[in-house]
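User: I'm putting together a small comparison set for a docking exercise, and I want a reference complex before I start. The sequence is below, and the ligand is (2S)-amino(hydroxy)ethanoic acid. Could you produce the 3D structure with the ligand included, as structure tokens?
Assistant: Of course. I'll restate your input first, then give the structure tokens for the complex.
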Amino acid sequence: MAAPATPSNLRIDAGRLWSSILETARIGATAKGGINRLTLTDLDRQVRDWFVAACRAAGCTVTIDALGNIFARRPGRDNALPPIAMGSHLDTQPTGGKFDGVIGVLAGLEVLRTLNDSGIETQAPIEVINWTNEEGSRFAPAMLASGVFAGVFTPDYAYTRQDRDGVSFAEALDGIGYRGEAPCGGRKLGAFFELHIEQGPILEAEAKTIGVVSGVQAMRWYELTLTGADSHAGTTPMRLRRDALLAAASVIQAVNALALAHAPDAVGTVGLIEARPNSRNVVPGEVFLTIDLRHPDDAVVAAMEHQLGIALDAIAAEAGIGASLDRNWDSPAVPFDPDCIAAVERAAAAQGLPARRITSGAGHDAAYIARVAPTAMIFVPCDGGVSHNELENASAEHVAAGANVLLQAVLETDARLYGS
Ligand code: HGY
Ligand code: MN
Ligand code: MN
């Protein structure tokens, strides 16, 4: 006769969690085994509908706020207490994987299902959250709706963000019917925990199962428009050209050099580029491109930004073109809550899981929620550290281990904050 499940030896149902991951991965599945489920598309609506139905089937009340954030709530003994929350995001990159964001939401659902199965009553309500537009791929910046919840952005700022086709966030949100009545933010969370794949190579290289995330690095995004002159590819002498795409090539090299100059921790990326008129026999007169700079230290990112400006001025002068740079996102480095970090660390140790402290190179909703609630994250490895790639892969064993650490960190925090 197995010992009755008490909170410390309670474990999630690994098979049920893995089935949920594979079931939802069919929504937006790509031929290469990934997911293309951009935020506020009909595919996002379908996975949202799946999540809402599953949470209701688990006995939760579901609230949707004015930014489309979904809050599934399992009642506790005292429902006036600020909830202990878990969550992440169900939107993906265009060539996303099955695990980025998804495991944080579905492991939260699995924790609720496990608490139901074991009949455990927590002191505070427990919530699982799906944050809208974490990726920032369709609507920049990233972590937009968790940012509104944390008071970083206004709802109107979010509503007016446009995708590259000129569709606004508000139009897309209304288009899938997920603009809720509840205000976004302005309510307390007792704590927030986010389970996520590391999306980098460290845990796998060190054979660690759990990353105890101490914080998130600084990140800045920019939009750059280079303006030269359209001209005929056959008749315009090289010396008379004002080729915006040639200048863009220099910008891409400069961003790379900037990151290498601040090695080993800096990263710099040009991820999106549009040449206009994008015709094979026209010298491009205009280029739009994006720049992503990151480093664990705010001061270094600021220095990189300054050096970027100097490089752009030199490139524009040399090429005889205009350059207009707009910083459209500035997310400072974020330290997580020591007590929540310790809860994650204790949960990993109690389950005998090899773990290490780690800083997140990727942005996460937890980075903004840390401004309004005690917050920490749990990482698990992914194969080769590969993410934002259809080949992204994690093992059922590691995902289950992360979900068990999430379960125990939530139970311990409920007991620590509210007694139970
Ligand atoms: O950009 C990021 O780090 C996250 O994936 N949104
Ligand atoms: Mn993510
Ligand atoms: Mn991502």
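The pocket of manganese (II) ion (ligand 3) is lined by residues 93, 100, 135, 388 (CB under 6 Å). DSSP finds twelve helices and 16 strands in the chain.
User: Thanks, that's exactly what I needed.
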